[in-house]
Amino acid sequence: MSAARTRILAAAALLSATLTILSAPLAMPALAFLFKPLTTLLVIAHAWPRGRELPALRRAVLAGLLLSLMGDVALLWPESGFLTGLLSFLLAHLAYLHAFTRVRPLASWWPAFAAYALLAGSILAALWPGVPAPLRAPVAVYVTCLAAMAAQAAVLGWRARGTDAAARSALLALGGALFVCSDALLATHRFAVALPWSGLLILSTYWTAQWCIASWLAPPGPKDE
Predict the structure, then answer these.
(1) Per-residue confidence (pLDDT) for residue 204, from 0 to 100
(2) First to last CA, the chain
(3) What DSSP assignment string belongs to 65-113?
(4) Closest CA to 74 of 41, 125, 33, 28
(5) How far apart are CA 48 and CA 50, in angstroms?
(6) How many domains does the chain have?
(7) Which domain range does residue 12 map to?
(8) pTM confidence score
(9) pLDDT band at residue 221 using 50, 70 and 90 as cut-offs
(10) How far is Cα 190 from Cα 185, in angstroms, rounded to an integer?
(11) What gap in Å lies between CA 145 and CA 92, rounded to an integer?
């Protein structure tokens, strides 16, 4: 039942994400207003029955997903909702970081943090001239939190090698990396140069990242189904 449910949710999320992405080239914004939140809700539905053996950790991941949903809705209005969306996703990354540090201490594998610090600094340096002055501080804080979240996800992926959680933790590390990729593409499109197929690139990496993070939670056992 659990595997079948996952396949159904994955198929529904893929369809919903596709309709969201097509809303721009089809000039049908109503599709985005309906299916963008729905896609994230389907990721939340995937996460909901998982991780019940660690309720505090599960609550933190679900909080991150719900905050992401708020950010998705805010960014349906790209200009007026940008700061609200930025704050929502910043809090989502902090919620994820809280969950990840319940498993391993923060920065307990320093190469991950060094690599993401270098990457984040490079992205900020490249985009900085195009970031409006009032947004520079919020963007810098956001990038710092995003990089820390992704780096801690990599810590868990590295430390879980050879354990029962290895596959799920590898997915988590991939999710963190894809989140950075998605936001780097979004920032490039907004502050530097318009990207072709921006919706496809940004949203496909974003929802894949969220699915990977949700999949890090342990699947329900027979008693939980």
Answers:
(1) 98
(2) 8
(3) HHHHHHHHHHTTSTTTTHHHHHHHHHHHHHHHHHHHHTTS-TTSSHHHH
(4) 33
(5) 6
(6) 1
(7) 2-216
(8) 0.96
(9) confident
(10) 9
(11) 10
- Give a yes or no: residue 173 inside a domain: yes
- Burial status of residue 197 (CB atoms within 10 A of its CB: 0-12, 13-18, 19 or more): exposed
Cα–Cα distance measured from residue 123 to residue 114, given in angstroms and rounded to the nearest whole number? 14
Of 20, 3, 21, 103, nearest in space to 60 by CA: 103
Distant-in-sequence, close-in-space partners of 167: CB < 8 Å, separation ≥ 6: none
pLDDT, one tens digit per residue, over 68-102 is 999 999 999 999 999 999 999 999 999 999 999 99
Tell me whether residue 225 is in a domain: no
The two structure tokens encoding residue 1: 């039942």
Q: What is the largest CA-CA distance in the chain?
A: 55
For the stretch 87-111, what's the b/e string if a residue is b when 16 or more beta carbons lie within 10 angstroms of its beta carbon? bbbbbbbbbbbbbbbebbeeeebee
CB 75 within 8 A of CB 68: no
Could you tell me if residue 54 is inside a domain?
A: yes
Structural domain includes residue 224: no
